[in-house]
Structure formats: structure tokens, C-alpha cells
Amino acid sequence: MGKEPAKREIKQERAARTRVEILEAAITLFARRGYLSTTMSDLAKAIRMTPGALYWHFPTKEDLLLAAIEELHNRYLMEFAPLLAERRILSGREQLVFVVSRTSQFLRYHREYGIFFGMLSAESAESNDRVAEALREKISLYVAVLTGMIRYGQKRQEFRQEVDPVHMAHTMMGGYLGILLHHNLYRSTVNYDPLMASLDMILSGGLHVRGPPG
């Protein structure tokens, strides 16, 4: 490899690392302060970068937000690679347990990710149609997957037939985001795991049939 291609590759790798660092810092700051109250200058200061350098990577705050949404979406999907490989041999209940468990663990160790989505959903719904649409697009994908699992479980007589799969899937997504925001407010006195366990118990009680499938 010649010197010029090698230098170009090094620059590209450095730019990619810098981009990830910017996104990580932005997600954390937006989760703490909300995106309406956070400026590009705030972000540049948080990551010890000049505003000009930050604007080189992301021309606008909206561009940064959209990139952060895409980044978190990709990270979340990686959690479910094992499920995609084994989905055909799992029951609807097993699939749902896998999703619930992985989601709880993912948000437990990356609390700011869920808060970011929750805060952004609340703020963008009334202030930024483009960001709101990007969020709806990603969340709708999760809802569609959950809906398919619930319908599969209903077909196998694992889940109650009167449950509306779409509404239940939306309830699950809203419940997880809501729990994170609630826990963020009460984190000094309320533990995360019991909150998630209680939510899972409520959802399971409303979805699973009583006793073994008939």
C-alpha cells in the first residue's frame, strides 16, 4: 500500500472514531438536558472540540440528532442477532421473553440511550417533524417485530386471542421508555430492576393465557 492511500485510510479511521465519540457525547448530553436546551456550542465544549470542527462532522444540530437516532437503532438491533438466528425454532412466548430480557439489560447498562429516545420523543412531537418522523420510523420497526411475535403466539394458543397485537406492542414500547424516564426522576430512592420486573409482570398477565395452551 502506498503512502497516500495509507494516510487516507488513517484519516478515515480517525474521522470514524471521532464521529462515534461525538455521537456518544451528544446522546448523553441530550438525555440529560433535552435537545431543545442543548446547543452545538454546548456539545463542542463537552467533547473538547471547536465548534467549527463539530460543524464539519455535522452541519446542523438536526443532522446530529438524526445520526444519533440511527446509531442507537443499529446498536439496539445488534442485541437481537441471536434471536434472528433462532427465531424459527422458538415459541412466541420464548421470543417475547428474549426481547424483554435483552431490552431490559440493554437499557439497564445504557440508561441514557432510552432516556434519549424518551426525551426526544416528548420534545420533537411538537417542535421538529423531521426528527419526530425519524423516531417514529425506528420505533415502528420495533413495534412491527413485537406485533409479529404476539400474532405468532396467538396462532399457537400461547397468548390471549382478545389482545390486540398492535396496541400491545405499542404499550410495551411506551412502557419501557416511560419506566426509564420515571426511574431517572426517582433513581436515588427506587431501583431499576424491580420497576422493570413489575412492568413485565403486568404485560405478561395481560398477554399470556392462563394455564398451558389448550
CATH 4th-level superfamily of the domain at 61-206: Tetracycline Repressor, domain 2
Helix proportion of residues, in percent?
A: over 70%
The averaged pLDDT comes out at 87
Class by SSE composition: mainly alpha
Low-pLDDT segments: none
Distance linking N and C termini: 66 Å
Please state the second-level CATH architecture of the domain at 61-206: Orthogonal Bundle
Assembly state (oligomeric): single chain
| CATH class division of the domain at 61-206 | Mainly Alpha
Gyration radius, rounded: 20 Å
Counting DSSP H or I runs of 4 or more residues, the number of helices is 10
For the report, how would you describe the main beta sheet? none
**Count of DSSP E strands?**
0
Q: What gross morphology would you assign?
A: globular
How much of the residues is beta strand, in percent? Answer: under 5%
Order of helices and strands: HHHHHHHHHH
The CATH topology annotation of the domain at 61-206 reads as: Tetracycline Repressor, domain 2
